[in-house]
Structures are given as C-alpha cells and as structure tokens.
Specification:
221 residues; alpha/beta; Rossmann fold; Arc Repressor Mutant, subunit A; 2 domains; five-stranded parallel beta sheet; four-stranded antiparallel beta sheet; 8 helices; 12 strands; 34% helix
C-alpha cells in the first residue's frame, strides 16, 4: 500500500546484490520507479519528473559522480541522494544533496527521503480534480497528464488561485506577463488554447476553462 506521496526514481542494478533498496522502499510505501542505468533515468525524467532521485552507485559498480552530474546539469532543482561503497575514494559529492556511504539500514535512507517530503508538497497546488506542480510544470486533470510550458503553468496557477471567479484579461496580463499592456490579446488567447488542448476532454467545447465574452476567462472548479 502506498503511504507516502513522495515519488522516488531509484537508479539501481536490477541484479540481485546484497545492498539493494527497491523492495525496502516499496514496502515502506514509497512510489518507486526503478531503472538500471543513468541513461534510462534521464529518459524517464523527461516523461515524468520524480520528487527525488536515489542513485545506488555501488550496485552499478561506479562512484555515481557522472550520473549525478548528468542529472544535476539537466535538472538543477531535482533532489539527489547518492549511495556509495564503504571504500569508495571520494569524500564529498557537491552535486548530490545527500551522500550516504554503505553499509547502513534501509530506515536511514527512508529518513533521508522524508526530509524532502514537505519541500515537494510546497510545489503542489490542488483544486478538485486538477493538480499542478509549479516546480515541474506538470498538471493532472482526471486521467490526463500535461507537461506545460512555464508560462502556461503560471497562467494555470493564477486561474487556480481564483477558481470559479472571472479573471479579466487585464488581470491575467498583469499577473502572468507582468505588464499592463493589453493592446494585443492574441498571446493570452493562444496560451488559453494550449491549456485547453492539454487538459480539456474536448478543447473545442471547453468545460474547464470558460470564455467570458468581453471580459476574460474563468476556471470552472
């Protein structure tokens, strides 16, 4: 049973080795996705951003520094826990948030993961069936998952903060684009169209994002 909201991407050899953590984390209720290499991890992160990455470098027979560098370069804000062998000849890994040296218990790893739980939740906004991660710009609405542009994410965030209320074009421009100029509203209309395409069941007959003629838009939640 899943008892934690934290999603963990575990990079660990899928061979049976002594120090593995996949089953332990799943038993503890974490939402774990398990891959066997750094390249697999990077491809998966593009599709579904986790809350934390755990690199079991010992199981991969490497010190993990190269994988850590790849992930940190591509995703500067993504938390990384690096696990290394007891005799590994490195004293620090500045691109990892936490460095753990084996041996240690699975509970120690669980305790370190929980340090990121509150931080992960701060990035989540929920309104009814609509959820937006403002850090990763990923939205979920019923069965749909949408990877938004930063501007679309900002626009959706503003509308979620005042869901059910009519937002004028002027207010949306002011808060999302930080400008009072509304001489050309096509930019706003285009972004609304993108949001509808990403989230609505039928973008041509939108139910979630309603146009209020002559005024602006309303998020129907």
């Amino acid at each position: 049973m899943k008892t934690n909201d934290l999603s963990v991407l575990l990079i660990e050899s899928k061979q049976r080795l002594k120090n593995t953590f996949a089953s332990d984390l799943e038993t503890k209720g974490f939402d774990v996705v398990h891959v066997g290499s750094g390249s697999e991890a990077l491809e998966l992160i593009k599709e579904d951003m986790p809350d934390v990455v755990v690199i079991n470098a010992m199981s991969l027979r490497t010190n993990g520094l190269r994988i850590t560098h790849w992930i940190r370069s591509a995703y500067p804000d993504l938390p990384i826990i690096l696990i290394i062998a007891e005799d590994e000849a490195i004293n620090k890994a500045p691109q990892a948030n936490i460095l753990l040296r084996l041996p240690f218990t699975a509970q120690k790893l669980v305790n370190r993961l929980r340090l990121f739980s509150n931080a992960a939740h701060k990035h989540i906004i929920k309104k009814g069936p609509l959820e937006l991660n403002i850090q990763t710009c990923v939205a979920h609405y019923h069965e749909k998952e949408a990877h938004l542009t930063p501007r679309c994410s900002d626009l959706l965030r503003v509308m979620m903060e005042k869901s059910g209320k009519i937002l004028s074009r002027e207010e949306l421009f002011s808060r999302v684009w930080e400008t009072d100029y509304t001489g050309d509203t096509r930019t706003l209309d285009v972004h609304i169209s993108w949001l509808r395409t990403a989230l609505e069941e039928n973008p041509r007959q939108p139910k979630l994002i309603q146009t209020i003629r002559g005024i602006g838009y309303r998020l129907n939640l």
